[in-house]
Structures are given as C-alpha cells and as structure tokens.
Amino acid sequence: MKKSFQIAGAYVGIIVGAGFASGQEILQFFTSFGWMGIAGGIIATFFFAFLGMQLTQLGSRLKTDSHKDVIYHICGRYLGVIVDIIITFFLFGVAVVMMAGSGSIFEQQFGLPAIVGNIVMAALTILTVCLNVQKLLNIISMITPFLMVLVLIITGYSLFTMDQSFADLNAIAKAQPQAASNWLMGGLLYVSYNIAAGAAMLAVMGGTEKDSKVAGRGGILGGLGLGLLILLINIGMFVKMDQLKSVDMPTLMLANHMHPVLGALMSIALLGMIYNTAVGMLYAFSVRLIKPSSKKFKPAVIGFGVLSFAASFVGFIKLVSTVYPLMGYLGFTLIAAIILAWFRSRKNRGIDNNTRIAG
C-alpha cells in the first residue's frame, strides 16, 4: 500500500498545481455554476479515479519512461501521433502557467514584483528536473497531506462565518466568468484538461511500479483525493463568493481573511503545489523529446525552462482562461481513447477466458 499512497500523493500533487492551486480554476469551472458546481465536482471525481487507474496501470504494464508508449498503445499509430503532439505541447503550456502563477502569489501575498516569483520558480524547477524520476515522486507526494489539512480548515471556517444567504451567493456565483457553457461541461472539461496535462506523468509514475494492481490502486486513491479537494475548495469559495471578485488567487485570499499566519502557510502550500506541477510538466516534456540518460538532457532542460519562464509574462488569469479550456476540448480525444481501450481490454479478457474454458 505504501507505493499506492506514494503514487496517489504524486497524482494529487501534479494535478493540484495545474487545476487547484490558485482557486481561479475551481471558480471558473465549478463555483461559477452555483450549487450545480457540486454535481460537476462529483462527476469529475469519478473520471479522475477511473482515468488515473487506467493510465498508471498501462504505464506499469508497458514499463514506460515517457508518455509516448502509453499514448500509442491507447490511440493506435495514426491518432497516437496527433494526441502525442497535443500532450507534448500542453506539457510545456502548463509549465508556463505554473511560473506565471508563482509570480501572482509573490505579488499578492508578499508584495514583491511578479518577476521575482517567476525567476524563483523557473530556477527551482530546472534544478529539480535534473534529478531522477524516483526522487521526483518522493518530492511531489510530500506536500499533498499538508494542503489537504489547510483546505479543510479554510472550508470549515468559511462555512461558519458566511454572512450571505445561499440564494444571494448562488446569484453572485453565476455572475462570475464561466469556463464552459454549463455545469456538466465544466466538470468534464476540467477533468479533460487536467488529464491532458497529467497523463504523461501518470504513465511515467505507473512505469516505476512492477505490479499494475498497485499502480492502479494509486491512481484510484489519487482521483478520490482530487475529488475531495474539488468539493471542499468549491464549497469554501461559494460561501464567500461576495468577497472573491477579480482576485487572482481566491484560496489565498480566503486564508488571509482567516488569519495572516494561515495565509502565509497557504502561500507556502500553493507555491509547493505549483512547484510540483511545474516540475512534473517540465520533466515529462523533456523526457518525451530527449532520453533522460542522454548527455544532452540537462542542457535541454535548462533551455526548455528558460523558454517557459519567458512565456510566463503573458499573465496568469489570461493563460488560465485561454490555455485550459482549449486543452480541455482537445483532451476529450484522449479520454475517449482511454475508455475505448478499457472496453477493448475487457472484451479481450472475456475472449481469453472463453477460450480457456473451451480448451
């Protein structure tokens, strides 16, 4: 079980930076639909658990060190080329968003120029990606329990101190920018873009475990953990919706309203999660293009990291509202392929069982 929990923690750690850290993502994909955002969160939980299980199990069976083998196995030779290119492109895109998010935290919480946060995150990410993948897993999985505790505290406090009626809060929430046409599409798009971003590292994490059942269990537990975080952050922001208009980092604002110390702790947790995702994305992007054993790997990581740092000056909210929805729609291709591969494997197992019985 230890390995399953390690994979689960790393799964949460990678996805949280891309999809949870600021609260802006939960706000646009769930909270902006009012109470129905909770239904979207439940749907997202199911898909995170199912898709996490499939990708980690495939990574384990194929013993992969990049997402390429898993994608071609799921999608086939021709569709696999397209999905591979999409995922590789968005791995770089999410790394860029993470560096921009770090700049927003430094500016909002510490009053420092955003460029300081961008530089710090870029430097730490580049240095860490030069480590081996097992060390990456250990680092990424460490911060998850810390964030869980902070989110529970903030959500509980928000519920006990809410000062608006549910009807008023529902109206305010629905007036916020929405990243999808309805709550169902919001939940599905949210899973889609996160899986498009996280599939590569999920496959690599699965490849570190020989037992596919252990790897798959880690994917399920990680998906359930992500679902719990969605629901808690969504509820915490919903009951304080009147205070969160036009804020880059809503979860950080909630923590600061509770107590400055909690705000400082939340800043550390958010930076940790953004760091986790930036590292995971840059590593997966780099190993897709250059083998980790190659002498060119570390110089290439430095070059890719510098490029992502340069691109991060577009701005955090703008990047979230453009990169993520586009990524979500393209990620539906990957989800459909994973589901079809699952049906095919079940059908093949059924044929094998019938053959054994007949024999």
* Whole-number total of structural domains: 1
Q: What characterizes the major β-sheet?
A: none
Class by SSE composition: mainly alpha
End-to-end separation: 37 Å
The CATH level-2 architecture is identified as Up-down Bundle
Oligomer: single chain
Number of strands: 0
| Overall spatial form | globular
CATH class: Mainly Alpha
What is the CATH topology descriptor? Amino acid/polyamine transporter I
Rg: 20 Å
Mean pLDDT: 83
Number of helices: 14
Unreliable spans are: none
User: What's the helical proportion of residues?
Assistant: over 70%
What would you note in describing this structure?
- The chain has 359 residues and is an all-alpha fold.
- The protein has a single domain (2-345), classed as Amino acid/polyamine transporter I.
- 82% of the residues lie in helices and 0% in strands.
- It has 14 helices and no strands.
- The chain has helices spanning 2-19, 24-29, 36-62, 68-110, 114-129, 133-142, 144-160, 166-174, 183-206, 212-238, 250-258, 260-289, 297-311, 316-358.
- The two termini are 37 Å apart.
- The model has no long low-confidence stretch (mean pLDDT 83).
- Keywords: Membrane, Transmembrane, Transmembrane helix.
Topology:
Layout: H1 2-19, H2 24-29, H3 36-62, H4 68-110, H5 114-129, H6 133-142, H7 144-160, H8 166-174, H9 183-206, H10 212-238, H11 250-258, H12 260-289, H13 297-311, H14 316-358
Helix pairs in contact: 1-6, 1-9, 1-10, 1-12, 3-9, 3-10, 4-5, 4-9, 4-12, 4-13, 4-14, 5-12, 5-13, 7-10, 7-12, 9-12, 9-14, 11-12, 12-13
